[in-house]
Amino acid sequence: MNASPPPRSRQIPVIVLAGFLGSGKTTLLNHLLRHRAGNRIGVIVNDFGSIEIDAMTVSGQVGSTVSLGGGCLCCAVDASELDTYLETLTRPAARLDVIVIEASGLAEPQELVRMLLASDNPHIVYGGLVEVVDAAEFGATRERHPEIDRHLAVADLVVLNKTDRAGEQECAHLRQAVEATGSTAAVIPATYGRIDPELLFDPALRPDGEEKARQLTFEDLYLEERARESGDEHGAHLHTVYESVDFTSDVPMDPRRLMEFLDSRPGGLYRIKGYVDFGAGDVDNAYAVHAVGRFLRFVPKPWTRGEPRLTRLVLIGSGIDADALRKELEGCRTAGEPGRETAQDAPHERAMWGVLRYVRQPGDDDA
Ligand SMILES: Nc1nc2c(ncn2[C@@H]2O[C@H](COP(=O)(O)OP(=O)(O)OP(=O)(O)O)[C@@H](O)[C@H]2O)c(=O)[nH]1
After folding, report:
1. Residue 89 in contact with residue 57, Cβ under 8 Å?
2. Cβ 46 under 6 angstroms from ligand 1
3. φ/ψ of residue 253, rounded to 5
4. N or C, which end of the chain is more exposed by having fewer CB within 10 Å?
5. Is the CB of 172 under 6 A from ligand 1?
């Protein structure tokens, strides 16, 4: 009998980090690596020579960084090559929580996103496209590279970086430009790429508490040092640009109403995560939900015996109206007569069609 590999139950989010030359991608990546909240981050870079790989690796993580030499990722690496790198990084031994691909400043990010969505690797889930924009250079870059509008249109999160060098006007201009592309991406202002890592990944939840019990690392020391230098502005400001909304319900959600809510979600609502009980719509499964920008996916998972049938959602965004969102979600609950309905009822099955559009079937290519 063949020894089967150990199960890898979680899908690892893969985030694409894009932006024009010098916009601050590497700075942002380094910031994420220093504020990784216990997560183990794997990085694929397709730059060559100009990045200090050593500076980007964090303690205990050397070996999880794969550098693609030889040019622009979307041109030089075909899908099978990318898959090989992803396969390496998703091995259980790597114990990664998130993978970030830093696209070359000249890459067409949509090509890379398409490759990820079409990937057969069952251990990854697309985690969104983050487009870094140099606020001070935005006007000039746009003149030289009109394709930036195309990049903004497909981004899930736009980081308006270098706001220290730009005036209010440039920032407002960029927001308008993003909206004009038809994009609903959240726009987050930043200096030196200091965005809240929780926008991209969850704090690690390690059952063995290994991260909590560990000794001070270089990362901690670095953070302490920086906090001292800056009077701790740094840490305090990280949490000011976005809001999060928690929603819990023991009444099942109505699939049609929830899909209406999700299909018309406001632009600033950048992330939704959690799981949903659709009651009679599917009595056997909880539906894990994962939304980044406009990307949405449901993954059905059988309820375990005795597990409380709850819907639990966390919504994260900037410029969102938390009370209004919570009310809208409350309005998505079923009238609530659990037990009276059965999954065999045709109307319930039909109501689930909207949800099932976002459940990936084997062999699907969402691109
Ligand atoms: N003033 C200012 N400078 C910044 C900020 N963020 C990054 N920089 C600087 O901008 C320069 C370019 O930053 P990088 O992070 O290397 O940019 P990149 O997008 O990775 O560049 P490429 O790899 O060439 O595409 C560096 O000198 C950074 O220190 C910021 O918010 N404000």
Report:
1. no
2. no
3. -90, 145
4. N
5. no
In ligand 1, the atom with minimum distance to the C-alpha of 102 is 20
What is residue 40's three-state secondary structure?
Answer: coil
Separation CA 355–CA 43 (nearest Å): 32
Candidate from 20, 27, 141 with most ligand 1 atoms within 8 A of CB, to mutate:
27
For residue 136 and ligand 1, the question of a CB distance below 6 A is answered with: no
Tens-level pLDDT at each residue, the chain (367 residues): 444 444 445 788 899 999 887 788 888 988 888 887 777 888 877 543 333 333 333 333 444 455 544 444 444 455 667 787 788 888 887 788 888 888 766 667 887 888 888 888 889 988 889 999 998 888 888 887 788 888 888 888 889 999 888 878 877 888 888 888 877 778 888 999 998 887 777 654 433 333 333 333 444 444 444 444 444 443 333 333 567 788 999 999 999 999 999 988 887 777 788 889 999 999 999 998 888 777 788 989 999 888 899 999 988 777 788 899 999 999 999 975 554 444 444 567 788 999 998 887 655 544 3
Copy the structure tokens of residue 11: 């899908």
Query: What was the ipTM of the complex prediction?
Result: 0.98
Q: How far is the CA of 22 from the centre of ligand 1 (A)?
A: 5
Query: Quick check: CB of 52 below 6 Å from ligand 1?
Result: no
In short, whether 249's Cβ falls inside 6 Å of ligand 1 is: no
- Segments of the chain assigned to CATH 3.30.1220.10: 243-356
Query: Does the Cβ of 25 fall within 6 Å of ligand 1?
Result: yes
Residue pair 280/342 in contact (Cβ under 8 Å)? The answer is: yes
Taking a C-beta distance cutoff of 8 angstroms, is the pair 278, 253 a contact? yes
Q: Which ranges in the chain are annotated with CATH 3.40.50.300?
A: 12-238
The CATH architecture that domain 243-356 belongs to is 2-Layer Sandwich (3.30)
CA atoms within 13 A on the CB side of 209: 2
CATH 3.20.20.70 fits 12-238, yes or no: no
Q: Is 196 in the pocket of ligand 1 (CB under 6 A)?
A: no
Ligand 1 centre distance from Cα of residue 28 (Å): 8
Query: Where does residue 303 rank: exposed (0-12), middle (13-18), buried (19+ CB within 10 A)?
Result: middle
